[in-house]
Design brief:
Layout (H helix, E strand, L loop, with lengths): L1 H19 L7 E11 L10 E2 L2 E2 L3 E14 L5 E15 L16 H4 L15 H12 L4 H5 L3 E2 L2 E2 L2 H4 L7 H12 L2 E6 L3 E14 L7 E14 L5 E15 L16 H4 L15 H12 L4 H5 L12 H4 L7 H12 L1
Antiparallel strand pairs: 1-4, 1-8, 2-3, 4-5, 6-7, 9-10, 10-11
């Protein structure tokens, strides 16, 4: 009888360990956000051959992959969220930008079936489905596990992953590694829900002239947010990247497609906003103030943060530390909370 009870207790404990990481439910976790930007995949000059056809318009594209993670005290991933966005401008043979800068760009996860990859997938799965398989595969792994994952030309080779994910994951891998390495202890627990919000747009557009190259900027804002059972933010991490493409009067791209732009937060003082700031603070300092301000708030309360017609905050408890435009950051956070 005692032996049966012991076996039963052991079984219950084993199940509990699987569901709560051996008693770690509610333990503090680190939260991190990482991104990788690539120009080379989707950028093409007029005359280039793509899928067997000559390109008739130059494409200036930035592919931005973003990852959010929760990491426990042992350095193992508790939760992982991934998304990506392709922000592109079309340019003609005279150096004129053809794409309307008000164009809405959806993330790959938001596109769902409209990304239209399933037909060419060897496992018959869309990008968002394969990204979700990668997210699940990451749970329980450390940064070294992610760094040393099996890859062949960017494609995964681990059979436990390739049943659900066969897309190129080298950019995703780098985003996850950066998220883990930058993760910090900020008040989230393993019981919280992790969300990722990503928005993107085209900005700062000029056509090429004899004197200057044409320019367009892919601007992405992203947020990793942990929320508790009451829907309140326990931790938020926010960052942005500005990826600039240039071309000449023939429409030929002139920027270095191998050069990856640094995110705003990681630029620190080099972003060089402090001198123009009315409160003398850099971008990373102001976004830290915004993150602190929204901690403890719900999605509805973040949406309700008061801004003027130009998107600048008007709440005096926020403007002591953050006076820059916050509309895009609000939107990214609300998206993250919804997910």
């Amino acid at each position: 009888m005692k032996k049966r009870i012991s076996v039963l207790v052991a079984a219950v404990l084993a199940i509990a360990c699987l569901s709560t990481a051996c008693g770690e439910s509610g333990s503090e976790v680190k939260v991190g956000l990482g991104a990788h930007t690539d120009f080379s995949y989707g950028s093409h000059n007029i005359g280039d051959e793509v899928y067997g056809q000559a390109v008739t318009e130059t494409t200036a594209q930035a592919d931005i992959h973003v990852a959010a993670v929760m990491v426990d005290a042992d350095g193992k991933i508790v939760s992982c969220k991934i998304d990506a966005i392709q922000i592109a401008g079309k340019v003609d043979a005279t150096g004129k930008l053809l794409t309307d800068v008000s164009t809405e760009f959806k993330t790959k996860k938001e596109l769902k079936e409209d990304y239209n990859m399933k037909g060419s997938s060897e496992i018959g799965k869309e990008w968002y489905e394969q990204a979700e398989a990668f997210e699940k595969w990451c749970v329980g792994k450390t940064v070294d596990d992610i760094k040393n994952m099996g890859l062949s030309d960017g494609y995964p080779t681990d059979s436990t992953l390739t049943t659900g994910c066969t897309i190129k994951v080298n950019n995703i891998q780098q985003a996850v590694v950066r998220a883990i390495e930058g993760a910090t202890w900020t008040g989230a627990t393993s019981d919280d829900t992790l969300g990722l919000g990503l928005i993107g747009e085209l900005t700062k557009n000029t056509d090429a002239t004899a004197e200057e190259n044409g320019t367009v900027q892919a601007y992405a804002n992203f947020a990793a947010v942990a929320q508790n059972a009451e829907g309140k933010i326990t931790c938020a991490v926010i960052d942005s990247v500005q990826a600039t493409s240039t071309w000449d009067t023939t429409g030929k791209l002139t920027h270095d497609l191998t050069n990856e732009p640094t995110t705003k937060y990681n630029q620190k003082e080099d972003y060089n906003m402090k001198g123009a700031s009315e409160i003398g603070k850099e971008w990373y300092e102001q976004i830290d103030a915004f993150k602190s301000f929204i901690t403890g708030k719900t999605s509805a309360e973040v949406t309700a943060i008061a801004v003027d017609d130009s998107g600048y905050p008007t709440d005096s408890t926020l403007t002591t530390g953050c006076t820059m435009k916050v509309v895009a950051y609000k939107e990214a956070v609300v998206k993250a909370l919804a997910k």
